[in-house]
Amino acid sequence: MLFFTRELYVGCQDGSGWTRAARSKIERNCKLYKRYFRLIRPCLPPSAVAFNEFSFHDAQILERRWRYQKLTLILDTARTFFVFPKRYAHITFTSVYRCPSPLPQKKDWWIWDEFHLGSRTKFSLHVMFTESEIEIPAHNISLRFRNERP
After folding, report:
1. What distance in Å separates the CA atoms of residue 65 and residue 127, rounded to the nearest whole number?
2. pTM higher than 0.85, yes or no?
């Protein structure tokens, strides 16, 4: 992660000793990332551009599956700040160059994500979870919402 680092995540937690400074840096980095995303947007597939409109901060991993260059993450969005059309988000990455390692654990929380251009794929989505960080190099991403628990 370039814009949203583990250090900033830890720093913005109460009791870190530099909460106010960390939150100020996060605000600055949000603005920088928005500018960066506008620059790379023309090179990203439409599915990535559409996905970037959502914020999954504080969504919880319910399920993750890797099979045949396809990664599926199912998130419970009940505690997110963003209002979604239905409770469970099913995110599927296709033509994934390699399996992200380690895959996030069930019950991990999605903290931040950022898109980057891929060297072997159309994009690379970097995601920070409470316990891990992954990079997902893929050609496409699809998102659908359901109310039924997986």
Report:
1. 16
2. yes
Q: How far apart are CA 24 and CA 14, in angstroms?
A: 14
* Strand residue runs (E) in the chain: 59-67, 70-76, 88-94, 109-116, 123-129, 133-138, 140-146
Residue 69 corresponds to which tokens in the numbers above? 């260059």
Assign 39 to helix, strand or coil: helix
Give 145's pLDDT tier (boundaries 50, 70, 90). Answer: very high
Measured CA to CA, the distance from residue 94 to residue 135 in angstroms comes to 14
| Cα gap 69→95, rounded to integer Å | 5
Of 135, 130, 137, the closest CA to residue 6 belongs to 130
Distances (CA, A) of 3 to 27, 32, 41: 10, 8, 16
Number of separate helices (H) and strands (E) present in the chain: 3, 7
Condensed to tens digits (0 to 9), the pLDDT of residues 78-137 reads: 999 888 889 999 999 999 988 888 899 999 999 999 999 999 999 999 999 999 999 999
What is the per-residue pLDDT for 85? 86
